[in-house]
Prior knowledge:
The structure is a single chain. The protein has helices at residues 33-59, 63-87, 126-130, 154-173, and strands at residues 27-28, 90-93, 97-102, 108-113, 117-123, 133-140, 147-153. By secondary structure, the protein is of the alpha+beta class. α1 packs antiparallel against α2.
Amino acid sequence: MTTIKSREKCVPDAADRLDLPDVGEWKRVSPRYVVVETVGTIVFGLVLAAAAAAVWLLLDVQWALYVIGAVVLITGATVAFEPRRVRAIGYQLRRDDLLFRRGIMFTRFVSVPYGRMQLVDITRGPIARWLGLADLKFVTAAASSGVLIPGLPEADAESLRDRLVELAESRRAGL
């Protein structure tokens, strides 16, 4: 016996959504990280546009003009969404793990137990260093579960690194 669901029932209610208990507050990355992402997007767009322009000028291929236009449009749209995308990045220190989220349309949540962390690393690119920002990367035994928290102020990244190393050592000692 099959039942036909009404149109209203197709919309998921609160019980069907991802339930994350509010253990603490979400911490966001620095708003200055928008500059890092915007500069990277513009540089990448310029490189692609320059390559298409070189094809157009050297080989006299007309479709390269359409590629230049598409690159400019896509780069502009990406730059327009950068502030919202950066605001969607956050992390939460919970009792037994660190919860990381990112994404606007396709939101990704990654939970990394403190006892499984093997490496906590801080990296700084040239633009991020100029803005006083750093990326915090931690790796677990599973290669696919490496998490990168970008755009943290340098002091926050260093204190978070020290705190995570301390938590990881105390949780591993209990194994």
